């Protein structure tokens, strides 16, 4: 098992631009808790009241993700959403608007933990903005059941790279391979997220979106478990430079990936 490491949770104070939380808005919150609890071993406790029906997922007592329930009249896609850290969520929300994005929710306070907003880049990909106020507890990463990576899947990276660099101050590192449309976003030289241009391969009915990948101990077993729990396999298990990965969807259609680190 990969050694547990201190990481970002909803309360953590992180360098601006660093992914610090992932959250899922679902239609059936109870059934969604059952699915992810069985898949990742998560337990749940109530989250901030301002977010409506919302729970925080815990792994061995540490917060690793959040889940909320969409109001019945909302027709938004069911999707995992990464939150990017900021020192000032109001100022970052203003920057999003000035750079051509939109702010759909907030900024608003989330109990004593911090302040948040939900925004979209100029191409429509949704992401969260999180300003942590205090650190409560010690979340972990690098172990099965924790987020591993966040990646934007979009039509092309050139214009959207400028947006994220302007809003969050990222250093950008384009792929060296000829023909590859991929950019790594860095904070203080450290890779924190990726942007991948898919061109016509991006589903038109979905549009650009941020994808979340979770660590698992065994990718093949995780895919079998997803199917047994009512989800489906979107992309079968395959070996890559960062380990054995696969892409799945939960019973409500939220797409995410899992990865088993090389042994």
From TrEMBL:
InterPro entries in UniProt: Anthracycline_SecMetBiosynth, Glyas_Bleomycin-R_OHBP_Dase, Glyoxalase_6, VOC_core
CDD domains in the record: SgaA_N_like (cd07247)
Domain VOC: 18-132, 146-261
Record-given protein name: VOC family protein
